[in-house]
Amino acid sequence: MKDTALLEDALRTYINRRCRRAYAHDLRNGLQGLFGGVDALTRAARATKPLAVPLDQLTSFVQQAITNHERGLERVLDSLAPEPQSPVAVSMRELLMDLAKFLTNDAARNNIRIRQDFSDDLRVTAPPCRLRLLGLALLTESIDAQPSGGETRIAGRTVQGRVQFEIIDSRTQARPSSFIEEAVTGIVAELSGVIESKPGANGGHEVRVQLPAS
């Protein structure tokens, strides 16, 4: 049996390379805010008549843009080279919604619509970086399995002390097994959870993950 830590490291390396475009888009968004703020301040400094927007508001805008860009950098660094993290309470609903937003451009390139259907907050206690890696692995696999377009639905609920979330897509062909599946299964097992992957009842594919609720 392969070492789970090695598989997880290999999965993170693969995901970082796979999501390079999405990381770059995140960083560009932060820089655009900074450029917009600096441009507004430059025009304000050159203005010869009263400003439409007060200077203090422009300054606050630039400060917020800097904060947003710093947060974006932290997210990228946490994904590329995460520090060891202790288990904390995490909302899987918020995490999966954030990942869906992060992968919006990837989904659009494949003409894939991402739908979301959550009935509660889906709170679990685990290292956030491992949950993020798990979510990215499952979502990118779903997107890549539909190169000609389709739909990915993310749903979740908490039932009898277990958080359950599903990723259901409309792929028409099964993808060959890879180390990704083994790595994901290992991560879920170490989080005291179970994962099930199977063809959908009405076609497509379903992945269901259950984790202990907080």
Automatic annotation (TrEMBL):
InterPro entries: HATPase_C_sf
Protein name according to UniProt: HAMP domain-containing histidine kinase
Top-level taxon of the source organism: Bacteria
